[in-house]
């Protein structure tokens, strides 16, 4: 059976992603707080920002789960094919 190569993420990439997310969320939060608008408009924008963040996290989870499911299906199909090929003898004569 062939061993698949698992891609890995470096600690620097993970840290950069966290830092970028934190910076963007902080910048948007400060922008909403210091916006020269009435309080109800800032509250509406803050709720909208939270909704976008939670929707993004949910979308990332769904995409990851779908990718993992396709990998499991591919592994099962590959294992069945490997078993079939291992049991097949091209020189076997029937009869």
From TrEMBL:
Q: Does the keyword Transmembrane helix apply?
A: yes
In this chain the YiaAB two helix domain maps to 13-65
What sections of the protein cross the membrane?
Answer: 12-34, 40-60
Q: Which UniProt keywords apply?
A: Membrane, Transmembrane, Transmembrane helix
User: So which domain of life are we looking at?
Assistant: Bacteria
Q: Which InterPro entries match?
A: YiaA-like, YiaAB
- The name this protein carries in UniProt is YiaAB two helix domain-containing protein
Q: What is the lineage of its organism?
A: Bacteria, Bacillati, Actinomycetota, Actinomycetes, Propionibacteriales
């Amino acid at each position: 059976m062939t061993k698949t190569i698992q891609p890995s993420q470096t600690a620097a990439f993970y840290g950069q992603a966290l830092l970028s997310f934190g910076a963007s969320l902080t910048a948007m939060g400060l922008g909403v707080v210091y916006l020269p608008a009435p309080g109800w408009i800032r509250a509406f924008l803050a709720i909208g920002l939270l909704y976008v963040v939670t929707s993004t996290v949910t979308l990332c989870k769904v995409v990851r789960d779908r990718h993992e499911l396709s990998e499991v299906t591919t592994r099962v199909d590959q294992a069945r094919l490997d078993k079939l090929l291992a049991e097949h003898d091209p020189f076997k004569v029937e009869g």
